[in-house]
Amino acid sequence: MATVSPTPLLKDELDIVIPTIRNLDFLEMWRPFFQPYHLIIVQDGDPTKTIKVPEGFDYELYNRNDINRILGPKASCISFKDSACRCFGYMVSKKKYIYTIDDDCFVAKDPSGKDINALEQHIQNLLSPSTPFFFNTLYDPYRSGADFVRGYPFSLREGVPTAVSHGLWLNIPDYDAPTQLVKPLERNTRYVDAIMTIPKGTLFPMCGMNLAFHRELIGPAMYFGLMGDGQPIGRYDDMWAGWCTKVICDHLGWGVKTGLPYIWHSKASNPFVNLKKEYKGIYWQEELIPFFQSVALPKDCTTVQKCYIEISKQVKAKLGKVDDYFNKLADAMVTWIEAWDELNPSGDISAKIPNGASK
């Protein structure tokens, strides 16, 4: 009797968003895991270039001309010549969840040699609760074979919705240019079989190359900023989104998980090119982190959009004096929300989803 393969988790509720400037041959390796899902490909760079996608994938592809056509003047908020353009895919998606991956990321193997289905693990992370208000020393208590340890308050064991699942990478680590330069041969070979909720009040550097999130919950905060062409900075797009997202999740009472799943990150980008993109960010992050640590969102910020607009005002007021770039970025944050609401007119669903915020 033939075995019927089970229907993939969230098959009709998740889009895979891929930013790229090249043919997507890397999808061949992911075919067993990605083929049942809808792909949104955001082509960066020259829109006249044809990007080849392997046969058999269900996808839509947007280039810069499409972005300009769909968003009109608001297209100015979408970065050009930078992987930050991927957030356009989040905006046009109509699905509940998003998984985003870079085109130099391949299927990793677990310590037993088995291929890791990163997407399935992200989905499991998103569908299980988070525990941001009290740390469980056995990490994720909802995993098979784990539970809450002695002394964990019973009132907090139900957990809260998980908004973000942040995955990791084997082989090439996600380092900044100075670290790349001093450790050119370093490779991450350490597979840590753990998932944890990042505690409330703690920021983290979010990497966008292996990331999943609950789009209906936190999507409007997943803006990857103004980076790349015409901007004084690059390679801070995902981190900017991560800091904004974490502050909003803390305020609204949702969770962010980090750890499994791993992907195999195949090639290191040029550290000298990276340094040119990053060097202002390396200075600015010393101001940015204290800023995000001190952001206070008023009680009437009950939706992601309201929270995000409030953060943009505080960016202008406090970071505008660091550099005029932050005034431009704050304006782009508002434009992003306006464009999001135009393409997603059903209102802010996050307002209807119960959260774990302390009343």
UniProtKB/TrEMBL annotation:
Q: Where do the record's glycosylation annotations fall on this chain?
A: R150
Q: Look up the domain of life of the source.
A: Eukaryota
Q: Please tell me whether the keyword Glycoprotein is annotated for this protein.
A: yes
Task: Tell me which InterPro entries the record gives.
Answer: Nucleotide-diphossugar_trans (IPR029044), RGP (IPR004901), RGP_fam (IPR037595)
Q: List the record's Gene Ontology CC terms alphabetically.
A: cytosol; Golgi apparatus
Annotated site, Required for activity, chain positions: R150, R157
Q: Which UniProt keywords apply?
A: Cell wall biogenesis/degradation, Glycoprotein, Golgi apparatus, Isomerase
- Which example biological process does GO assign this protein? plant-type cell wall organization or biogenesis
Q: Which GO terms describe its molecular function?
A: UDP-arabinopyranose mutase activity
Q: Which reaction does it catalyse?
A: UDP-beta-L-arabinofuranose = UDP-beta-L-arabinopyranose
Return the broad EC class.
Answer: isomerase
Cite the Pfam families for this sequence: RGP
Its chief place of residence is: Golgi
Q: What is its EC number?
A: 5.4.99.30
Q: Where in the cell is it found?
A: Golgi apparatus
Functionally, this protein is described as follows: Probable UDP-L-arabinose mutase involved in the biosynthesis of cell wall non-cellulosic polysaccharides.
Q: Which family does it belong to?
A: Belongs to the RGP family.
- UniProt name for this protein: UDP-arabinopyranose mutase
State the organism named in the record.
Gossypium tomentosum
Q: What is the lineage of its organism?
A: Eukaryota, Viridiplantae, Streptophyta, Embryophyta, Tracheophyta
